[in-house]
Amino acid sequence: MEQDINITIIDREGISHTIEAPTDMAMNLMEVVRVYELAPEGTIGICGGMAMCASCQCYVLSNTLLPEMQDDEEAMLSEAFFVKDNSRLGCQIQMTPAMEGLEVKLAPAE
Amino acid sequence: MIKTDILIIGAGPTGLFTVFEAGLLKLKCHLIDALPQAGGQCTELYPKKPIYDIPAYPEILAGDLTMKLLEQCKQFEPGFTLGERAETIEKQEDGSFIVTTNKGTQHQAPVVAIAGGLGSFEPRKPLIHNIADFEDKGVEYMIKDPEFYRDKKVVIAGGGDSALDWSIFLSDIASEVTLIHRRNEFRGHLDSVDKVQELKNLGKINLITPAEVTGIVGDGAVKAVVVSQAKHIEKEFELECDHFIPLFGLSPKLGPIANWGLEIEKNAIKVNNALDYQTNIPGIFAIGDVNIYPGKLKLILCGFHEATLMCQAAYQIMNPGKRYVLKYTTVAGVDGFDGTRKEAPKAVVKAFD
């Protein structure tokens, strides 16, 4: 079994949670947020993880080397609100060992 | 007043399948949905995406699933109140409920089935400071009747399928169509993108990218929008129009249902899953993604099962004490309310010479 990684998620209330995320479950960041119930159910991951809504938008605070943004994520972010230069969609960030130390803040719910 | 046996709130896959199961029990259904078309998330969010876990369909597009469900329940003649959101519910002395929409349409039924998914889809409104002042005064977040735009100057904003498809559609109706998007790239079906390109070349669609609408000009009605364009050098200009239609997709909100006195947990309605998916209010059921119980999975196929059991309970409410035996469609056939009958062909009995 691969090692869990430590990541920090600041929820929409501003509370910081440092949690262990598994890297062997094909989980993405949006799913980790849901599993740990860091955002109310129904307010995150609405499209299920297809980069077709922006409900899992987050701001990346650490300088972790992230997977490159694909066209659909870029397109969705171009229509999202509250977008900043460090915005990403959580559903497009897979939990791999390379994400160790990742720190993100959830964007406001629309 | 629209009267029916089961009033279904939400016309997604679970709601549509309820019509079929209710029909087998000779119960009539009427559906209310905030969206202008049936299908719920499947048609609104991802009509062209495949689903792989519908039993017997190794792969089916979400839009096609909706078409199939509509076809399956057609003979039970469901009524629809579309483009309206269920707002209030009032219990009557005879035990029935009256549900009123935001447009004032009233519906009465002895049983209410909430199949509301993640809630009613509300348009995502762009963060333009004075947009609220112009809502329904030239700003529309949804297109209900394209004819409304005949010979009008229309500005559409957005970069997805609905922005592309409506720009194409309205280019034949409106006097002028302008499509504004923050990027040069569009996130649409390839056919739609090509078609917009073609109409742009023909001068039938005016395309402004990368740009966004940052303000609205008018006095009681939209006269123009303020466009900020970032091509080469940044510039800002006013674009005259009669209508501004921002199409940035929709996001679901549980909405008024949350105030109906139902037990809510994690943005979902608690139901009795040991029996019939009834809520804490007898006569009101919650099925599909909108409900919650131990072990709940938000899957379309689970919604189908929940709808089927719920209909049995609804039958008992409407026919108290009446004995009922489950009929298999293969044996009993399907008798539609429209007079049609489907049945298995009779076996041929023929002696050999």
TrEMBL record, chain A:
InterPro entries: 2Fe-2S_ferredoxin-like_sf (IPR036010), Adrenodoxin-like (IPR001055), Beta-grasp_dom_sf (IPR012675)
Cofactor(s) recorded in Swiss-Prot or TrEMBL: [2Fe-2S] cluster
GO molecular function: 2 iron, 2 sulfur cluster binding; electron transfer activity; metal ion binding
Coiled-coil intervals: none
Transmembrane as UniProt keyword: no
Top-level division of the source organism's lineage: Bacteria
GO BP term, example: P450-containing electron transport chain
Gene3D superfamilies, A to Z: 3.10.20.30
Ligase is among the record's keywords: no
Keyword terms of this UniProt record: 2Fe-2S, Iron, Iron-sulfur, Metal-binding
The protein, known as: 2Fe-2S iron-sulfur cluster binding domain-containing protein
Organism in which the protein naturally occurs: Bizionia argentinensis JUB59
Lineage: Bacteria, Pseudomonadati, Bacteroidota, Flavobacteriia, Flavobacteriales
From TrEMBL, chain B:
Transmembrane segments: none
Enzymatic reactions: 2 reduced [2Fe-2S]-[ferredoxin] + NADP(+) + H(+) = 2 oxidized [2Fe-2S]-[ferredoxin] + NADPH
Listed Pfam families: Pyr_redox_2
Domain FAD/NAD(P)-binding: start-end pairs: 5-297
Obligatory cofactor(s): FAD
EC number in record: 1.18.1.2
Coiled-coil annotated residue ranges, if any: none
Note describing how the cofactor binds: Binds 1 FAD per subunit.
UniProt entry tagged with the keyword Oxidoreductase: yes
GO molecular function per UniProt: ferredoxin-NADP+ reductase activity; flavin adenine dinucleotide binding; NADP binding
Keywords in alphabetical order: FAD, Flavoprotein, NADP, Oxidoreductase
Gene3D superfamilies associated with the record: FAD/NAD(P)-binding domain (3.50.50.60)
Enzyme's top EC category: oxidoreductase
Family the entry assigns: Belongs to the ferredoxin--NADP reductase type 2 family.
Protein's recorded name: Ferredoxin--NADP reductase
Organism this protein belongs to: Bizionia argentinensis JUB59
